[in-house]
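Task card 7
Instruction: Convert sequence to C-alpha cells.
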Amino acid sequence: MAKRSYTPERIINKLREVEIFVSQASTVGEAARKIGVTEQTYYRWRREYGGMRIEQVKRLKKLEKENTRLKRLVADLSLCAIGLDDEKSEDRTTGMVRCLQPGLCWRQRSPSMGPPRGMGAR
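Output:
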C-alpha cells in the first residue's frame, strides 16, 4: 500500500467504519483492509485516537503543536541565560550583554550582576 497522510478527522471516520464492519461479523483484519490500511495501522490509530471525538482530536493536535513551540522557546531561553547562545554581543558603553535576536533573552545581565542563580561562574 502507498504511504498516505491522513488528517485526524479522516482517521476518526475510518475508525468508525472499522467498528461498523466488525459489528457486521467481519474480522478486524478484513475491516482494516476494506478501509485501505493495515491492521497494525488500525491498532496504532485506535491506541492514539480511540474513543475521541473530532473536536477533541483537533484540540489535542493544537496543544501538541503549542507544546512543541514552548519547548523550543524554553530551550532557546536556557541557552541564552547560561551564555551558550552564539548570537550575543556586549555593548561596550554599558557592559550589558544582549542577544542579537530581540525578545530572545528574558533579561539583560550586566557583568557586575554575576551569573544567574544556580549557573555558577561563567
